Structures are given as C-alpha cells and as structure tokens.
TrEMBL record:
Annotated spans, Disordered: 1-27
Biological source species: Micromonospora globbae
Membrane-spanning intervals of the chain: none
Protein name (database record): PQQ-like beta-propeller repeat protein
Domain Pyrrolo-quinoline quinone repeat: 107-239
Length: 441
C-alpha cells in the first residue's frame, strides 16, 4: 500500500505528491545558482500573481458566494449587509496572462430577488437558474436570469435538474402538502407537464448526462417511471410498503431499494420494473450508490463498504477500511476503475483510493480539503497551505492513485471551487474579495 503524507495544513491537510528522488549535482556556478534561487523565492513570495499568470480579482463581501455559469463567474452578495437584498454580478473568466491580477469590468449586475440563500446555479439555453433555500423551506425556489443581460425571467417554487432539452424538472419541497413534480420550459417558465410527487422520492435517470426518465416512488411501494419529455407513464409497479428512510436509488439502468424489515437489497430493471436480483444484507445500510459495474452499499455503522455486481447481485468484495464514497458527493462515484472513499482509520479526514474490481486499497491520503470537480469528468484537486501562507494545488489522479503538484498560489485564503478551463476561485485574505486563477494543464 502506498501512503502519501500531506503534512501540516492550517485549513486542513491536503494531498501532495512525494518529493522526487534526489540526484547528486556537480558543485558548479554557486553564485549563479544562488541568484536564481533568490529570484524564484522573491517571485513566489510576492503578494499577487506571478508574471504571466492568468488571474483576476473580483470584489465581493464577507458573506458573498461565487458560482460558475459557462464563461461567467457570478458573485452573489448582500447589497448593504447580512439579511439585506442580494445582487448578482457577472464577470468574464480571465483569458490572457498579465503581470498583475486583472480587475475586470462586470458584464452585468442585477438584483436577485430570493428569500433564502442560493446554493446552486445551472445553465441551459442561454439561461441561468439559481436554486435557493432557507431554514423554513430547505428546498425553496428557482429563479431564472438571462445569461447575456442578467434580466430576471421567472421565479417558481421547488428545486430540480436541467434535462438537457430546455426543460427543468422541478419538485416542490417535501414539507409542502400536495407537492408536485413538473417539467418547466427553461426560457419561458411554462409548465410542460406535472404529476403528484410522492413522499418517498423523485429520482432521475440520465442517458447520457441528460435526464430522460423520472422515477416517482411512494411509501406504499407504488412506483412509476415517466418519460422526462412528455410525463407519460412508461412503467408502473407495486414494490410493497417502503420505509420512508430506507435507501432507494437509480443506479445505471436499475432501481435499487433496501427492505430493512426483510434485510434485503433488490434491483429492478427500469425498463418494465421486473426484478433482476435480490440479496440479503447482514447489517443496516445507510445508502446505496453507483460504482460503475458495481452497486455499492454503505453501512450505517460497522462492517465496511460492500460492492455487489450490478448484473447479478453477487457480492464482489467488502472493505473494512472505508465508510463513505467521497466521489458520490460530487456526482462521479468512480474514475478509471478507482473509488475514492473516506477511511475508517483514526481521524476524520483520511481518504483512500480503492481498486473497484477487488476493493484493494491502493493509496492513502491524509486530506482535509478536497475541491470538487467542475463537472463529473473533471479532475479532483486538493489544497495544502505552506508555512509562508501560500496555497499548493495538487491534482489527484485516481487512475494511478497518485498526486502531482499543479500550482503554488499566493493570496488565497480558502473557500475554493473549480470551474471551466481549470479555473480556481478562492476567497482572498481580506475575506471580502475573490481571487481567480487559471491553473496550468
């Protein structure tokens, strides 16, 4: 097993690659070597981007939030202070290297009339869709803005997924009575179709990347598979009473559900809802998820991660070293037959890379801060802070279970996220502005 030591980090330890094997060098040109080292050190210590870096600085606020929307960076901040109305300002992604950080002019700015906090921004057909929520309504409302002008289009209750064909599949808050699920035209906000949304869940099937089917399941076990474009019921079945909190998930072309009373996990084909396999479970399962050719079951406590063959249901392996699929949080549970998991080893921030075929642990990463990829196929980045307060950015390559250093950035204080074209955004030390850096490929 390979162990990657990530060192001391102020905001949490982050992955880095082992130092290269040292080689003996001839003791030549000592003065020239010293001068080069001085120049490099001075450049790295400067409070700003290094020469020829593609970077910019965006104004914000201590409570401001940043979102990516195609070629735009959206900064959402209260107008005058906490609790005040919000404004969204759209900036272009930096494209050209400069000696100092660019301070671009906004493409547009507009009020964002929301009652809660924005937590997601999606784009489709020239529109930006903000989803916001509050303590009173955990799934609150969706607000549409024109991506070119910032003009407010429409506002509807509920949160959902863009289906790739100009529709947004919205579901009302589970706390509302008589809740519905509906397909809404992204540009106009017009409802294309709607149906009652059962309490058990509203699930989506994607092919490829776009939602093409909606699965509605109620606690009485009634399940419907509807066409995402028309709302037409394609298949219907009765699974028997379902526990409200028991796992139910669309994995590949399967509907997988756990019966805690019978201690079983059952997979049904979405096409017809016929049973494909059913297997016993020796312990209570917290959730099930997609592991490529496998179905992964994560226990509520103890026992380790279990991986089942998605075609037959046969148990392939159990890992006692892991408890949570980290990549599940970010929409991509596996990369090149590798799984990233949260380890059971002492400490809350220890991660491991497993071989998906066997469950064998390939590497161990003591990481306190991993940055989610901008898209399911994008790279994973980790962050590590140096003693002189710079941010080391490393890329985690799951295919070979190694990391490589990508960049060293001054002037980044945390709260980082990645976007298109290897763009990294972090809050700056003043806590009221954001730095934007284009990482080298």
């Amino acid at each position: 097993m390979m162990v990657i030591d990530l060192g001391e980090v102020r905001d949490g330890p982050l992955p880095d690659e082992p130092p290269p094997r040292s080689r003996t060098r001839p003791a030549r040109r000592p003065l020239w070597t010293a001068l080069v080292a001085l120049v490099v050190a001075a450049g790295l210590a400067a409070d700003g981007p290094a020469p020829a870096r593609i970077a910019s600085v965006l104004p914000g606020s201590p409570t401001g939030q940043v979102f990516f929307a195609d070629d735009l960076i959206l900064v959402v901040s209260p107008v005058s202070g906490p609790g005040s109305p919000r404004e969204v300002v759209a900036y272009p992604l930096p494209e050209h290297p400069t000696g100092a950080a660019q301070r671009p002019e906004p493409r547009w700015r507009t009020p964002l009339p929301i009652t809660g906090d924005p937590w997601r921004a999606q784009t489709s057909h020239g529109s930006i869709l903000f989803t916001s929520s509050s303590d009173d309504h955990p799934i609150g409302e969706t607000t549409m803005l024109d991506a070119r002008t910032g003009r407010l289009g429409w506002q509807l209750p509920g949160a959902g997924e863009v289906d790739g064909a100009g529709r947004l599949l919205l579901a009302d808050s589970p706390y509302l009575p008589d809740r519905t699920v509906r397909a809404v035209d992204v540009v106009s906000g017009r409802t294309v179709w709607s149906a009652p949304a059962p309490d058990k869940g509203v699930l989506h099937h994607r092919r490829p990347g776009a939602v093409d089917q909606v699965v509605l399941a109620g606690p009485d076990g009634g399940v419907e598979v509807r066409d995402a474009a028309t709302g037409e019921v394609r298949h219907r079945a009765d699974l028997g009473p379902l526990d409200v909190d028991a796992p139910l998930q669309v994995i590949g072309d399967l509907l997988v559900h756990v019966d805690r009373r019978a201690a079983t996990m059952t997979a049904r084909d979405l096409d017809g809802l016929g049973r494909r396999w059913s297997v016993p479970l020796p312990w209570a399962v917290s959730y099930v998820d997609d592991c490529g050719a496998l179905v992964c079951a994560v226990p509520e406590s103890g026992g380790g991660l279990q991986a089942f063959d998605a075609t037959t249901g046969a148990l392939r392996w159990t890992s006692a070293e892991s408890e949570t699929l980290v990549t599940r949080w970010w929409g991509g549970p596996h990369r090149a037959d590798r799984l990233l998991v949260l380890s059971r080893r002492a400490g809350p921030t220890t991660f491991a890379v497993l071989d998906a075929a066997t469950g064998r642990q390939l590497a161990q990463l003591d990481a306190g801060q991993l940055v989610p990829p901008a898209d399911p196929g994008g790279p994973f980045f980790g962050l590590r802070r140096t003693a002189d307060d710079r941010l080391v950015v490393v890329e985690l390559d799951l295919a070979v279970a190694r990391t490589r250093t990508v960049d060293v950035i001054p002037g980044a204080a945390g709260d980082c996220l990645t976007g298109p074209d290897l763009t990294l955004v972090c809050r700056r030390p003043d806590r009221s502005s954001f730095g934007v850096w284009r990482l080298p490929a």
